[in-house]
Amino acid sequence: MSSLWLRKVALAGATLAPSALAFSHYTAAERKPTTTALRAAPKLKQCVGGVWRESSSPAHIDVEDPSTGALIGTVPEGTPADAHAALRAAKAAQPAWARTSAAARGEALKAMARVIRANRVELAELLASEQAKVAGLAQVEIDFAAEYFDYYAGWARIYEAGEIISSDDPNEHIYLHKIPIGVSVGICPWNFPVFVMARKLAPALVTGNTVVVKTSEVTPLTCARLAQLWTESDDAALPPPGTYSVITGLGSTVGAALVSSPLVDIVSMTGSVPTGKAIMKSAAEHMTKVSLELGGKAPAIVCADADLELAVKGVLASRITYSGQICISCERVYVHESIKDVFLSKLVAAMEAVKVGAPTDEGVDCCGLVSAFQLEKVTGMVDRAVAGGAKVECGGAPLANVHYGFAPTVLTNVKQSDEIVQEEVFGPVLPVLTFKTLDEAFGLACDTKFGLTSSIYTTNVDIAERAKNELRFGETYVNRENFEALQGFHAGMRQSGVGGTDGKHGLEEYLASHVVYVRRDPNAGN
Ligand code: NAD
Question: Which of 32, 37, 216, 504 is 20 to 30 A removed from 518 (C-alpha atoms)?
Fold first, then answer.
């Protein structure tokens, strides 16, 4: 996941030689934190129904800075009792919120954006340190979250509240009202915690729903801190108490309690496929609607006629941004056999030139992975690929000098059926395969259980048109890196999810229809 802002990042990088892809458009000030106040571990609470309070249990979650391993803060390990309290508040607040004018709801979203902007540097610093995210990228995420609230605030006066359908009876009107679904639960992942939280809150609130968000247990700090800022702000335009809650805790306890509650009308979850399946099963008990944005295994096809510099820059930006820990990132490359050698030598040179370091290091492209678990997962997948015959063109192992760091890696001599080609790696690792014909390329690209994003590099418009028809993915990028726009529609096929987010169609996820037939007496008034 990511968006226009990451496109800005990638486009800026794409004007440079691949070896200089250091997101160099970040200013020195953006790269460096301006204060170290937050290094003193914040001990945060939860926002339950608009009240900033402790959990019903004293248990808490320690959060580490993945680039050092140091403890940088704690959040409550929320309980099912916290989940139910937040849901009861959401249920109670929803009717009045739905009766509030859409314009006023839009103003509330603008107020949420104002609070983010007023604290943008502090939030970005905390985000960079809890996530091992390049400081400039963390700042872009915070700024884009504010932009996201403003974007959906703009929809308040634009989205259609219904339509009038012609009746077979001339004395009847059929009104189709678009109404809020009710109470929404947003379950968030660790990789873009603040942006995804904005994705869960903005379209739901603007359409008159109330929301309970659960942050990831891996990176809960910045979301919790933002919730505190909203809760304690005196901006009168902010959404009233009860309309939103931000709770922290484990998926297996507080998350499971949220998604299985009969008080919930829609669960919007972003995360892994296994968790998506568990949530879908749980939601089935009460026929709760689900909207699931799950993992990906995006192919990039590099055709014989491709602009190779562009292809290398696009693939590199997509794989290296946030160390490849993005669902839409290019995860496997199919290159035409006639250009394999030249493409590979450029790609390997670019990957070897990537600078991996700490979030505020000068000129750093990406950092170590988010956790020991993630490093172990990536290392295990690469080791198994190599044991199965893969050739390491560069990288291939953890980095001794970067905490949880894994070297940018290119693998060849892999087979389509290999784990490394079929399963999501979520790290800076690229398997490269070849193809002879376009039929073969499209077939290999679509041979996957995932269906989130895909890309193709070609200078032939006919091939691009064919790709549009044959690549069965939620998104396809032609001659550009894999990053989506907030006004688009981010939705996966196959096991990458159901439903989607962003733009007009993302907003409609939060609306139900109510059809009312009104017959008048044709003789009345005569
Ligand atoms: P995850 O599935 O481990 O966790 C996601 C969230 O689900 C967490 O908040 C977790 O606590 C919660 N959860 C876990 N079990 C639960 C349960 N039984 N009931 C309710 N909630 C539960 O995913 P992650 O490791 O945080 O994120 C990485 C994954 O997310 C990757 O697969 C990535 O591709 C995917 N992702 C997808 C998108 C997208 O837009 N499609 C965006 C970002 C990340």
Answer: 504
